[in-house]
Amino acid sequence: MAAQQKRLLTTEKSKLGKLEPAALANILRKEAAWATLPLEIRQHLYSLLPAPQTGEAAHDVEVNPLRTSYRPYIEEELGRWQEDLKNGLEAKQWRQDALQAGRDRMEGQYDGWKEAQREEFWGEKGEEGEAVENLKPEESVGGGDEHDEDGVGNSTGEDSK
After folding, report:
1. How far apart are alpha carbons 40 and 142 in whole angstroms?
2. Residues 10 and 91: beta-carbon distance below 8 Å
3. Which residues are CB-neighbours of 155 under 8 A, at least 6 positions away?
4. What are the extents of the domains in the chain?
5. For residue 126, what is the DSSP state?
6. How many other CB atoms are there within 10 angstroms of residue 90's CB atom?
7. What is the pTM of this model?
8. 3-class DSSP state of 45
């Protein structure tokens, strides 16, 4: 891929990110846009779409998928891609950082943080691995003293009469 094309597809200041999503879809919907793609690319793009349902015709790589029932879904993804492009999520450095973060997670580098967050949100683990409540008695729902006539706690603190 030529450097100019790569910049067009990866730079957050790309003109493609500035187009209205419908305008980009209109450009790509043109037969000339689809026909210029090599057969292998068209086959790959169709492989990304769901397989046809039983009884439906097989994908035809000669037909632009934006002229099929997949059009609204493709347009939605184009809009997401444009947002990612504008936000710098298609840039080489961002992608490298994201891949490294994924490897780091797989290696367990964030397990300590994740465990601390879990304990803060769900409560500390006791000796047997059971959760220990972090709530103080006055923070519990209903305060523990307010009961309705049926003996069930009332979170508003008022009698339900």
Report:
1. 65
2. yes
3. 141, 142, 146
4. 8-90
5. -
6. 19
7. 0.58
8. helix
**Per-residue pLDDT for the chain (161 aa), expressed as one digit of tens each?**
688 888 888 888 888 888 887 888 899 999 999 999 999 999 999 999 999 888 888 899 999 999 998 999 999 999 999 999 999 888 889 889 999 999 988 888 888 888 888 877 887 665 565 555 555 555 545 544 555 555 555 555 555 44
Q: Please name the amino acid found at residue 157.
A: G
Query: Which amino acid is residue 63, in one-letter code?
Result: V
How far apart CA 5 and CA 69 sit, in angstroms, is 29
Phi, psi angles (nearest 5°) of residue 144: 85, -10
CA 49 from chain centre, in angstroms, equals: 17
Six-digit token pair at 63? 């037909």
Q: Radius of gyration over alpha carbons of the chain, in Å?
A: 27
Quick check: 47 and 123 in contact, CB under 8 A?
A: no
SS3 102: helix
Beta-carbon contacts of residue 141 (< 8 Å; ≥ 6 apart) = 153, 155
Whole-angstrom distance, CA of residue 81 vs CA of residue 41:
18
Identity (one letter) of the amino acid at 33? A
Q: Give the C-alpha separation, 31 to 46, whole Å.
A: 16
| Residue with token string 């793609």 | 37
Distance of CA 129 to the CA centre of its chain: 32
